[in-house]
Amino acid sequence: MMRQTKINLTVFVILLALLIGAPFLVDEVPLRLMTEMCYMALFAVSLNLLLGFAGMLSFGHSAYFGIGAYAAAIAFLHIEGIGLISGVLLGSFAALIAGAFFSLLLNRVGGTAFAMLTLAIMQICYSIALKWRNVTGGDDGLGGFDVPDLNIPLIGTIDMFESAHVYWFVLVIVSIMLFITWYLLKTPMGRSIVLLRESMSRAGFLGYQNTMTKFFLFTYTALLAGVAGSLFTVFQQFVSTGSADIFRSIDAILMTVIGGVGTFAGPILGAAAYIYLSDWLSDITARWQFFVGLLFIVLVMWYRGGIMGILTSVRLKISSGEKVKEAQGD
Amino acid sequence: MSEILKLYGVEHDFSGLQVLFGVNFHVLEGERHALIGPNGAGKTTVFNCITGELHPRKGQVLYKGNNIVGKRPFRIAREGMARSFQITNIFFNLTVRENLQSAILSRLNRRFNVLKWISRMDDVNDEADRMLELLGLREEAEMPAGLLSYGQQRALEIGLTVSLKPEMILLDEPTAGMSKEETHHAVDLIRSLTEGISMIIIEHDMDVIFDLADRITVLQYGEVICSDISSEVRVNDRVREAYLGEEGD
Amino acid sequence: MEISFVVILITIFHGLVYAMLLYLVASGLTLVFGMMGVLNLAHAFFYMLGAYIGYSILLHTGNFWVALIMAPIVVGAVGVLVERYLLRYLHPFGHIYELLLTIGLQLVILEGVKWYWGTEPLMASPPPILQASISILGAPYPVYRLFILFFSVVLILVLSWVMFKTRLGMVVRAAVDNPDMVSALGVNTPLVFAGVFGLGTALAALAGVIAAPLLGIAPGMADAIGFDAFVVVVTGGLGSLLGAIVAALLIGELQAFGVMFFPRFCLVLMFIVMAVVLSIRPQGLFGDRE
After folding, report:
1. CB distance from C49 to chain A under 8 Å?
2. Which of A211, B26, B196, C286 has the smallest number of Cβ neighbours within 10 A?
């Protein structure tokens, strides 16, 4: 298995180098697309913590994305002289609080009731965003604010008008949050979360207090979604109800399934693939979502492992093919 | 010897259908106690009332002197009472090792540790290795538990329960669905793993019962008809008539 | 606005009409859930499909009644195929995948409809006989709405009679309650499953055809009634037809009065109701604790 780890590491390093070097390798339009892929990847990973790792389908996750987005926007708009990081922090924190609050309701239900309750919560948040025009701008959205530049001593200034700078900023924040999540999943806390999916009753009889686990899970995933939402605001310099609607939730579900439910990297690949696909297809036909829907059905029916599943089975075929060769060589 | 568990007047019904009519029995510290009775007598219901899955309508469950009625299962588990299930309830998608780790982590109160990877916790993994050895599952350590044979899964089921290092263990038909040989093997395993632990075992196999149990409680139609040492139960008329008589001895 | 008795009465009628439509959509949804444990997220999109297909049939035949009969049959057939070839295959893999499939179906149906019929709203009018208005306590009330009310009530009574008074209905109810047991008793459960799913989608399509002249035909129509239908199903209790009718009446009237008197909060109100019910009694008003 050492060889596999070496391969993984090499691939990872190459990808990382490409990601960092992207602004020098691609034009502005693809770069903006990549920026979107970054924060949507974070959003999808947070959804997958619920769906793939804890076994809970949530339709309401876009509520936290929206809360993060709006809170950051409102901060940039109304708080004089607020810094970039502070704005993002505020947005993320607002989502975290919301997550903790709603977890009180969500803690007691599971399965379909849970999914429906998340839907209800999302719809309520969406309605608030739509109706509270004074604060959120209603269906006009919230714009007209400047996202402040960020001065980093010894490195330079992150200029919000430079696509490359925005991209790097988003990439760094997303990478940090993804690393923390990746690390977390290998700790006992990560195991507690997975046990929710495996057997809540067995976990309980082993001494696990599932309500506490769920509280942590709901709060943490809301935080991640909120960070993604705040980065959305930084990138778009504009926020509207589209950040908190059902379509955004469904997009995250699509990305997760395309990439591979229950794997860490799946939603990241899925986000990249989905955004690239939708960008490319939407140039070809206005009805591109029809094909995405078909693809989705095909994946759910026959390729439930998504892209990660396909990659894994390819890798297995290669390595078993090699084992056969080795055996034959003897 | 003191009583570690005592049921006192435990009654329970399901939506009006009475299943337990005032169950009384006790388990002494360190003893192996069998709970037997025909199907539908209410044995698993008694277990569920003890472990907190159900809250009996009336009566008390005294564990180490304290009434635990109303407590949630995880609390009771943390107080040293562990149970296994009649229908295998392991973590099928996790590997055998991961299954055991989960139990050990819980016992060590590390459930919410966010700083250290499980793979880096040597004490947990060493203990898991030892348990794998005892269960005879060392070869299958990295296999998903769902791929084990039935007998192996039952062994893991017991392994999970024992990994909590409980003071009291409740085994619900551990040999269900096993062949004679598998049963023999399982009983040896149970015996070796539960040295000194107070036990209640629900069983149908009479050989197992008389082999393992110090005292037996016989349940019929939700009532205790006899609760005594094995040799006495064997010759009790009511018991023979109600239960053993059906099997012909 | 003067809140006279007549206005209240009219609003109550509006609520009843909407409640009937909701029930037609929700009943299929709740039956399927009770039987298969699957919440068909695409259910409201079959409603939409029914409306659009009904429109095309109307266009070709010029006859509303033909459309009323044919559209549900077509959509019901689609439903049977979906259950037979897609959902059934996924059943061993768990509810999550069944739910995910229905999300995919949503997209496919929505975009398919937009592709074939375009994104502009379509005009549907009631058949000539039903285009008049009658007077209720001096206020004009469209006959068509009364027709919806009447037709739905008759349909519900017929369905209830079949469900509760015939052997077929008993088999279906038993299958909804305990599919394994029913299968062990020798009933062809796959057939029942496919049939009930098809019936559910057919009912939704029927609701779509009837609702079209009232609510219009547009790509957004699925979401519009879909959310309310979910609220009805969840509030009433997943799997409970009785719960569905009670909840439909509740939600229908809430919607009618909400639109009339509290337009700003209307949208949120439904969801607050659902959130409250789910938090206090997750199985709904009449549901079984699963």
Report:
1. no
2. B196
